[in-house]
Amino acid sequence: MSLTITSQRWTFKSPSLLLKNLNFFFSFSYLFNCSIHCSSPSSIDAESFYTSLLEKSLRKAHLTQIHNQLYKRGLQNNGFIITKFINISSNLKEIDYARQVFDEFPDKYVFLWNAIIRGYSMCNMLDEVVEMYSRMQTACVSPDTFTFPHVLKACGGLLAVRYGRAAHAHIYKHGFQEDMFVANGLLSFYVKCEENNSARVIFDGLTSKNVVSWTSIISGYAQSGQPVEALRIFMEMRGSDVKLDSIALVSVSKAYSDLEDLNQGGCLYGLVIKIGHEFDPDLRIALTSLYSKCGQVMAAKSLFDQMKVHDVILWNAMISGFAKNGHPNEALELFTEMISKNIPPDTVTVQSSVLASAQLGSLDQAKWMDTYVKNSKFSNDIIVSTALIDMYAKCGSIELAHEVFNRTLDKDVVVWSAMIMGYGLHGWGREAIDLFNEMKDARVLPNDITFLGLITACSHSGLVEEGWEFFHSMKDYGLEPQQKHYAGMVDLLGRAGYLDRACNFITTMPVEPSVSVWGALLSACKIHRCVMLGEYAAEKLFALDPLYTGHYVQLSNLYASTGMWDGVAKVRVLMKSKGLTKDVGLCELPPGNQIDIEVG
DNA sequence: CTAGGGTTAG
C-alpha cells in the first residue's frame, strides 16, 4: 500500500508501517496543505488510517480534506470514523463543523450522541449539552454511562438543579448509579449546586470511593463555609487506602485558608512535600493563597519566588494576598513588576491591585490606578469599576468615587451598594438614602449589602429612626437580617447613645448574637464611657472568642478612657493568664476538631 | 469519548 502526497509517493509494506510513519509526515504540518491520499485501503485499514489522520489534524482545512475523502470513498456513514471526526473537530473547537457532520449522519446511535454532547461540553456550550441530551431522548436513543458525566457537568455549570435531578432519575432508571464516573458526576453536580446534603447522600452511598469522590465532597464543604466538616472528611480519607494527589490537597488547602489556621496549614505543606507534590504549580498557588490568608505573606512570597514559571493566577494570588493582609505597597510593586515585564494582567489582577490602592489610602496612587484602568481593556469591567468606586471612597474622594459611578454603564446592585457604602462611610447619610431611592427608580433590587450600607450610612450620620426603618424594611425584599445587620443596628443605636435600646435590641434577636454584635456594643460603651455594660459585652466576647487579643485591648481602652487604671492592669493579668501577648492573633479549631497530619 | 482543584468587586 502507498501514501501519496501531491506528486510524491511512498510505498509501505503494511498498513501498520504506514501508520507509524504518518507521524513523520505530519511533523511538517505544511505538507498537510497538499492533498494526502492513501491507495485504496481495505475497510479495516480505512478506519485506522482515517482515525490516525484525524488525530494528526491541526486545522479546519485538514478536517475538510478528510471529510471530502470520506465522501469520495463512501465512508461518510462509518460510525467509528465519524465519531472520531466529531471528537477531533470538538477538540479543535470546530463545534459547528462537528454538528454539521453529526446532523448528516443517518442513524445516530449512542456513540455519536455522546461525541456531540462531549463536543458542546468542551466548547463550554452548556445549554446545547442539555439540549442535545433531551433531543437524544426524543430520538429514543438510550444513553450509556459515558453520556451522563457530560450532562451532569453541564447541569452543574448551569446550576440547573431540576435538570440535574431529572438526569439523576434517568441514571437510576438505567441502573448506572454504581458506575464510578456517573456517581462522581452526580456528586460534583450536587456540590456545584451547593446541595451538600444531596451530595452527602450520594457520597455515603458509594460502594467504593476513589480520590475524585473524596475530593468532590471535601471541596463541597470547603467552598460552602464548612471547613471543619471538610477537614473531618479529609481525616477520614487519610484513614482509607485512597492515595492523595495534588488536586485533593488543593481542596484541603482551601479549607485551611478559610479557617485561617496556619498551624494546621503549615503541616499541610509538610504533607505536600511528603507525597512529592511540592513543585506542582497549582498546589503552590493554593499554598501561596493559604499562607497569605493566614497573614503569612512573607512565607507566601518565598513560595512565589521559588516558582520558575509565574502563571497569571499565581501573580493574582500573591497580589491579593499582599493587598488583603496589610501590605498594599508590596502588592502594587508586584503589579508594576508585571507591567514592566510585559506580563498581561487579567481582570482579577486589576481588581486586586485596585483593592491594594484602596488599602494604601493614597489619593495619588488611586488616581494612578484609575488612569491605568481607563487606558486598559478593563475600563468597562463592572467589577473593576466597583473596586474603583470603593477605592476612591476609601482614599477620601467621594467626588471621584461618584465620577466613576456615573461613568459605569449597566450598574448592578453591587455598584449601587458600593456607592451607598461610600457615602455612608463619609457620613453622607442623606446622599446615601437619596441614592437608594434612585436605585429603586432604576429598578435594581437591593440585597443584603445594600441594606448594610444604608444602616452604616444612618449610623455614621446619626439618622437613628431612618436606619431603624431600613432594617425593618429588609423583609419587604425577602431579606433575612444577618449578624452583620444586627451588629450595624447595635452600632447605630449605641453610637447615638441609646445603649438601653441597643441592649433590648440584642435580647430580642432571633439568633445568638455573634462576636460582631457584642463588639459593636463594646465600642459604643467605649464612646459613652459605660463601664458596667462594657464589661458585660467583653465577657461575652471572651467567651465566644477567648484567644482574640483585640477584645482585651478594647476593654482595656474603655478602662483607660475613664481613668480606671486598675482595670487596665486587670486586663493585662487576664491576658497573661491565658498566655496571650498583645500582638499575636491565634486561630484554632474548636476543641475536639483538632486534626493532626503526621509528617514523615 | 466520561468525574475532582487554584486567583475574583460592594
Topology:
Blueprint: E1 2-5, E2 8-11, H1 15-26, E3 36-38, H2 43-55, H3 60-72, H4 79-91, H5 95-104, H6 110-122, H7 126-138, H8 147-158, H9 161-174, H10 180-192, H11 196-205, H12 211-222, H13 227-239, H14 246-259, H15 262-274, H16 281-293, H17 297-306, H18 312-324, H19 328-340, H20 347-360, H21 363-374, H22 382-394, H23 398-407, H24 413-425, H25 429-441, H26 448-460, H27 464-473, H28 483-495, H29 499-507, H30 515-527, H31 531-544, H32 549-561, H33 565-577
Antiparallel strand pairs: 1-2, 1-3
The structure holds one DNA strand of 10 nucleotides.
- Uncertain parts: 27-34, 583-600
Largest sheet: 3 strands, antiparallel
| Number of H/I helices | 33
The radius of gyration is 31 Å
**Strand order across the biggest sheet?**
2-1-3
- The CATH topology of the domain at 482-590 comes to Serine Threonine Protein Phosphatase 5, Tetratricopeptide repeat
Helix amount: 55-70%
* Distance, first to last CA: 59 Å
Quickly name the level 1 CATH class of the domain at 482-590.
Mainly Alpha
Number of strands: 3
Organism: Handroanthus impetiginosus
Pfam families: E_motif, PPR, PPR_2
Protein name: Pentacotripeptide-repeat region of PRORP domain-containing protein
GO molecular function, one term: RNA binding
What this model shows, in words?
The chain has 600 residues and is mainly α. Among the domains are: 224-309; 482-590, Serine Threonine Protein Phosphatase 5, Tetratricopeptide repeat. Helix content is 68%, strand content 2%. The protein has 33 helices and 3 strands. The protein has helices spanning 15-26, 43-55, 60-72, 79-91, 95-104, 110-122, 126-138, 147-158, 161-174, 180-192, 196-205, 211-222, 227-239, 246-259, 262-274, 281-293, 297-306, 312-324, 328-340, 347-360, 363-374, 382-394, 398-407, 413-425, 429-441, 448-460, 464-473, 483-495, 499-507, 515-527, 531-544, 549-561, 565-577, and strands spanning 2-5, 8-11, 36-38. The chain has a 3-stranded antiparallel sheet with strand order 2-1-3, with no helix packed on it. Helix 8 runs parallel beside helix 10. The longest helix has 14 residues, at 161-174. The model is unreliable at 27-34 and 583-600 (pLDDT under 50). It binds one DNA strand of 10 nucleotides through helix 4, helix 6, helix 8, helix 10 and helix 12. PPR repeats lie at residues 109-143, 210-244, 311-345, 412-446, 447-481. One of its GO terms (biological process) is RNA modification. GO terms for molecular function: RNA binding. This is Pentacotripeptide-repeat region of PRORP domain-containing protein. Keywords: Repeat.
